[in-house]
Amino acid sequence: MYHAPTELNDALRTLSEEGGQVVAGGTDVYPSAKQGKMPTHFLDLTRISGLGGISHHQDSIRIGATATWTDVIKSDLPAAFDALKQAAREVGSVQIQNSGTIAGNLCNASPAADGVPPLLALDASVELTSMTRGSRRCPLSEFITGVRQTTLLPDELLTAILVPPPPVEMGSAFEKLGSRRYLVISISMTAAMVSCDDTGKIEQARIAIGACSPVALRMPLLEASLIGQTPKDVTIDPDLFASLTPIDDVRGSTEFRLDVVVEQCARAVKRAANL
Amino acid sequence: MTTVSMTVNGKAVSADVEDRTLLVDYIREHLRLTGTHVGCDTSQCGACVVHVDGKAMKACTMLAVTADGADVTTIEGVANGDLHPMQKAFNDNHGLQCGFCTPGMIMSGIDMVNRYKADGKTLDETAIRHELEGNICRCTGYHNIVKSIQQAAGEM
Ligand SMILES: Cc1cc2nc3c(=O)[nH]c(=O)nc-3n(C[C@H](O)[C@H](O)[C@H](O)COP(=O)(O)OP(=O)(O)OC[C@H]3O[C@@H](n4cnc5c(N)ncnc54)[C@H](O)[C@@H]3O)c2cc1C
Ligand code: FES
Ligand code: FES
Predict the structure, then answer these.
(1) Calpha distance A200→B5 (Å, rounded)
(2) What is the residue extent of each domain of chain A?
(3) CA closest to A46 among chain B residues
């Protein structure tokens, strides 16, 4: 069965009554479903009216569930979203960016999902909606709970990603390392958001790191250590990465990944400060 | 089974397909338009790129039913009597060897030139290489593919 409802209510009803494989861009669903293991029930979200696009509201910037990476790249957004845009430009390739959604990236909950660190830095939450219980909000940092695990319930859809309007003075940047530039799983990635005072010292800082723990993490101790530093000569204390548990595999050893993260943080902070 | 209707290369087509049929299988097996290739099962190679409502898409990464109502262009639809400038450029610059990746390369090439023109941006060599990230070629080393797209960008 293939359902492609145009109204959210119909989608929620179908989901609660019949279930089925929820699919947006399908760029995670279809590649992992090939080789004869294709699901037989689909619920396609892309035709639901009002679920796409990026809109500005008083208390939030709302990224709709079917907004694609291409939509993010093309949107006029504050500088604090530059990290998310930079991540978007390197997700897969143009064709993947045209169909893949940010919401799908979050729901898929890969430790290497490129959308997560920039959205953690932006203090994003997700809006989860069900037929019977309406909508609830959950901070992104609590939504993804493990490798491919989220708090999404079987009858719920992620209907939007909500970002509180970021301070206008904050710039941001995204650094990603893979064994090649494109079409590879990230070895590690870092999103930084910073702003500086009149004397050029860091006044606000937010750092999130992905692919170095089952779930991407904010780095509160590191963030605190950046305050008062000058971006140009920033020093990153490797001892502040104790919460990271990078895996040791063919793509890189634990030690290598930690080295990379230290350098990525320094580069991301400099670029976020426009250096 | 679901009835899907779409426009492919300007012609209205309609068929009953199993819901899980990929667009690329519909194009190749039902419409017998075998210029669109399948080079992988991981959505990486780009041999299957077609245009869906004017956007470059991997036809292996969407279902035929998802394209219901859409306007699809495949490699068979780009020539208009004469070769399309992108096809001619691949010919002129030896932009292919075995040719397996070529339909996807040409569809991605046309898409990037159109997009850059619409945005008033110049498509230089660096941009072409970046734009080609979703198309893999095992023969040419890409150099002549990049040259081909550069030539076509000047002519389109
Ligand atoms: C060649 C290739 C390269 C890639 N490169 C990258 C990369 O560099 N970085 C990266 O992070 N990812 C990458 N990906 C993975 C993928 O493209 C992204 O994760 C993308 O954002 C997924 O979005 P989608 O809309 O296609 O998700 P889908 O495949 O449609 O869905 C993914 C999962 O989320 C669920 N889901 C989707 N939307 C909702 C919703 N609104 N509510 C509830 N559940 C939902 C689905 O049920 C499914 O489980 C790549 C994929 C491919 C094929
Ligand atoms: S067949 Fe390889 S990307 Fe579609
Ligand atoms: S020409 Fe052989 S794969 Fe590109």
Answers:
(1) 60
(2) 171-272
(3) B66
Domains of chain B from N-terminus onward:
2-76 (3.10.20.30), 85-155 (1.10.150.120)
Beta-carbon contacts of A199 under 8 Å, excluding residues fewer than 6 positions away, are none
User: Does residue B97 line the site of ligand 3, with CB under 6 A?
Assistant: yes
Q: Which residues of A touch B112 (CB under 8 A)?
A: 94
d(CA B153, CA B149): 6
User: Ligand 1 pocket: which of A107, A155, A188 to mutate (most atoms <8 Å of CB)?
Assistant: A107
Phi, psi of A204 (to 5 degrees): -135, 140
**B15 CB-near residues (< 8 Å, 6+ apart):** B3, B4, B26, B30
Q: Which ipTM value was assigned to this complex?
A: 0.86
Q: What is the pLDDT of residues A146-166, one digit of tens each?
A: 999 999 999 999 999 999 999
Looking at ligand 2, which atom is closest to the CA of residue B43?
A: 3
The pLDDT tens digits of the residues spanning A158-209 come to 999 999 999 999 999 999 987 666 656 678 999 999 999 999 999 999 999 9
Contact B61 A1 (CB under 8 A): no
Place of tokens 């079409």: A183
CATH entry 3.40.1190.20 includes domain A171-272? no
pTM of the model: 0.93
**Ligand 3 atom with minimal separation from the B138 CA:** 3
Flag if B62 and A26 touch (Cβ within 8 Å): yes
pLDDT digits (tens, 9 = 90+) for A78-132: 999 999 999 999 898 999 999 999 999 999 999 999 999 999 999 999 999 999 9
